Amino acid sequence: MNHIVHNGGLYKRPFNEAFEETPMLVAVLTYVGYGVLTLFGYLRDFMRQWKIEKCQNATEREEQKDFVPLYQDFENFYNRNLYMRIRDSWNRPICSVPGAKVDMMERVSHDYNWTFTYTGRVIKDVINMGSYNYLGFAQKAGTCQEAAAKVLSQYGAGVCSTRQEMGNLDKHEELEKLVATFLGVESAMVYGMGFATNSMNIPALVGKGCLILSDELNHASLVLGARLSGATIRIFKHNNMQSLEKLLKDAIVHGQPRTRRPWKKILILVEGIYSMEGSIVRLPEVIALKKKYKSYLYLDEAHSIGALGPNGRGVVDYFGLSPEDVDVMMGTFTKSFGAAGGYIGGKKELIDYLRTHSHSAVYATSMSPPVVEQIIASMKCIMGEDGTLVLISPVGKARVQQLAENTRYFRRRLKGMGFIIYGNEDSPIVPLMLYMPAKIGAFGREMLKRNIGVVVVGFPATPIIESRARFCLSAAHTKEMLDTALKEVDEVGDLLQLKYSRHRLVPLLDRPFDETTYEETED
Amino acid sequence: MDIKSMKNYVYWLYCQFELITCSYLMEPWEKILFYTFNISMLLMVLYTAYIFVPVHLSMAFQFFLHLFGNEQENTVSIVK
């Protein structure tokens, strides 16, 4: 359903995002299910306390029973009594490269998921709908793998030092130049771990006396980095530009809480694609707001780099904007490049500052050489050997287009079948709503029986009634694989009654924003 | 063949009940406890309905007749 955007021509293409409302009956039945499980949870806890049943989870020692209890909060209750029952859908060991198809080790549990034993068999060629393999670079043969093997024999696997000491290889310099060309920025810096890129660099950029405006559904790495920095954090509603503008206005008008001095810096933290919702950030509007209120923008493109845009350059390319408008462009190599690690790109002064002041550069080991070569090889594969002359090579274009086609086809077919699918039409992450706790476990198990591996997500990664199954599409998936997967999803959807959609979409929040729709945050 | 599809349909309904009330996730002894509780509650409700509902219905019926018609057996015979 095309939504008319009232923001005066900022968007060059239609922005179709939809989050269908939870049907009332489904919500009530989900609460019923959770109520029954909670009652049984209390019963089992009672039995464990009175030693009627053997206690297999972690408890305090006898001497510590009088201290503040460690395991009485809701998270631990949920873990003992609900998560344990469906635990076999997670942490499944795989034993091959996680490409379009993957091999999984078969395991059984004889004591209701407290312990697992391997049967020794391997489930071969499971269609992999859970790996973040957007451009299909998770391969065990090909140019990238050969280049990485050659560098492994030349440089070895370990670096044994930090970037600032002895760990700065010429490969890192080469990679950073390539990343800067890829993104269209002046300079870039790479780090060994994607999570650490966020959590170690945000404290280096902002501190006390600064303001961070962070989206409601930001990733744990961004939240951790924001909290570690010591700045004041204010949260705006997910992808809601009116909420963000109100916060910006209040920040500029009122200043810091007690002293009323102006904020030293205002940093807006957003992500390119949100991995649990499949929604894309409204980047043109964020940039317009940033320019109007003179604040800084930190864009985390972990899932969108390589996966969006006609040239695979991420969400900035998707909207046709200039990379100079985004102050700090961060991303990871884990998802689209088949490697590990993260990068930050921006102006030369910013990156030079980060080279000396980032915690990751000082204390964390730098990236391993074969991984660096994998990224260089995959980026050259996308960009063409000579990155300056051609924007995208034929091979890269084929992959990007295959991913876009797969995305559109898969989403359209699933919506046509009647499932509730969240998120933007163009995002390769497809969350399918399950809602009821028993269906989480049932969906994971039934799909594995039919040789398809999916990731199901429940509390605490999502709100408690909105549990979902998350499909991650890849350029490595062929149409036959997608058709097989869709056929099985259709079958399982009929078996478990998952087709909740009534095709009544909630209109996007472009309505006028007034006092009654927003609660004031406490200072 | 109709019996087979009927049986399959009933089994599918039972599966939906199991999924909605989360008894799909319970261990066998928990299932027995849960079903015993549910079935006993259901039987008690049905028994109470069997005892009380006809009495209540007939009393309500007489009340409404008295309110609207007021033509009861004894008065009609006297008028005649």
Automatic annotation (TrEMBL), chain A:
<dbReference type="InterPro" id="IPR050087">
    <property type="entry name" value="AON_synthase_class-II"/>
</dbReference>
<keyword id="KW-1133">Transmembrane helix</keyword>
<keyword id="KW-0256">Endoplasmic reticulum</keyword>
<comment type="pathway">
    <text>Lipid metabolism; sphingolipid metabolism.</text>
</comment>
<keyword id="KW-0472">Membrane</keyword>
<dbReference type="GO" id="GO:0004758">
    <property type="term" value="F:serine C-palmitoyltransferase activity"/>
</dbReference>
<dbReference type="GO" id="GO:0046513">
    <property type="term" value="P:ceramide biosynthetic process"/>
</dbReference>
<protein>
    <recommendedName>
        <fullName>serine C-palmitoyltransferase</fullName>
        <ecNumber>2.3.1.50</ecNumber>
    </recommendedName>
</protein>
<feature type="transmembrane region" description="Helical">
    <location>
        <begin position="24"/>
        <end position="43"/>
    </location>
</feature>
<dbReference type="Pfam" id="PF00155">
    <property type="entry name" value="Aminotran_1_2"/>
</dbReference>
<keyword id="KW-0663">Pyridoxal phosphate</keyword>
<dbReference type="InterPro" id="IPR004839">
    <property type="entry name" value="Aminotransferase_I/II_large"/>
</dbReference>
<keyword id="KW-0012">Acyltransferase</keyword>
<dbReference type="InterPro" id="IPR015421">
    <property type="entry name" value="PyrdxlP-dep_Trfase_major"/>
</dbReference>
<dbReference type="InterPro" id="IPR015424">
    <property type="entry name" value="PyrdxlP-dep_Trfase"/>
</dbReference>
<comment type="similarity">
    <text>Belongs to the class-II pyridoxal-phosphate-dependent aminotransferase family.</text>
</comment>
<keyword id="KW-0808">Transferase</keyword>
<keyword id="KW-0443">Lipid metabolism</keyword>
<dbReference type="InterPro" id="IPR015422">
    <property type="entry name" value="PyrdxlP-dep_Trfase_small"/>
</dbReference>
<dbReference type="GO" id="GO:0005789">
    <property type="term" value="C:endoplasmic reticulum membrane"/>
</dbReference>
<comment type="pathway">
    <text>Sphingolipid metabolism.</text>
</comment>
<keyword id="KW-0812">Transmembrane</keyword>
TrEMBL record, chain B:
<dbReference type="GO" id="GO:0004758">
    <property type="term" value="F:serine C-palmitoyltransferase activity"/>
</dbReference>
<keyword id="KW-0443">Lipid metabolism</keyword>
<feature type="transmembrane region" description="Helical">
    <location>
        <begin position="32"/>
        <end position="53"/>
    </location>
</feature>
<comment type="pathway">
    <text>Lipid metabolism; sphingolipid metabolism.</text>
</comment>
<dbReference type="GO" id="GO:0046513">
    <property type="term" value="P:ceramide biosynthetic process"/>
</dbReference>
<dbReference type="GO" id="GO:0017059">
    <property type="term" value="C:serine palmitoyltransferase complex"/>
</dbReference>
<dbReference type="Pfam" id="PF11779">
    <property type="entry name" value="SPT_ssu-like"/>
</dbReference>
<keyword id="KW-0812">Transmembrane</keyword>
<comment type="function">
    <text>Component of the serine palmitoyltransferase multisubunit enzyme (SPT) that catalyzes the initial and rate-limiting step in sphingolipid biosynthesis by condensing L-serine and activated acyl-CoA (most commonly palmitoyl-CoA) to form long-chain bases. The SPT complex is composed of SPTLC1, SPTLC2 or SPTLC3 and SPTSSA or SPTSSB. Within this complex, the heterodimer consisting of SPTLC1 and SPTLC2/SPTLC3 forms the catalytic core. Within the SPT complex, SPTSSB stimulates the catalytic activity and plays a role in substrate specificity.</text>
</comment>
<comment type="pathway">
    <text>Sphingolipid metabolism.</text>
</comment>
<dbReference type="GO" id="GO:0005789">
    <property type="term" value="C:endoplasmic reticulum membrane"/>
</dbReference>
<dbReference type="GO" id="GO:0007029">
    <property type="term" value="P:endoplasmic reticulum organization"/>
</dbReference>
<comment type="similarity">
    <text>Belongs to the SPTSS family. SPTSSB subfamily.</text>
</comment>
<protein>
    <recommendedName>
        <fullName>Serine palmitoyltransferase small subunit B</fullName>
    </recommendedName>
</protein>
<keyword id="KW-0256">Endoplasmic reticulum</keyword>
<comment type="subunit">
    <text>Component of the serine palmitoyltransferase (SPT) complex, which is composed of SPTLC1, SPTLC2 or SPTLC3 and SPTSSA or SPTSSB. The heterodimer consisting of SPTLC1 and SPTLC2/SPTLC3 forms the catalytic core of the enzyme, while SPTSSA or SPTSSB subunits determine substrate specificity. SPT also interacts with ORMDL proteins, especially ORMDL3, which negatively regulate SPT activity in the presence of ceramides.</text>
</comment>
<keyword id="KW-0472">Membrane</keyword>
<dbReference type="InterPro" id="IPR024512">
    <property type="entry name" value="Ser_palmitoyltrfase_ssu-like"/>
</dbReference>
<keyword id="KW-0746">Sphingolipid metabolism</keyword>
<keyword id="KW-1133">Transmembrane helix</keyword>
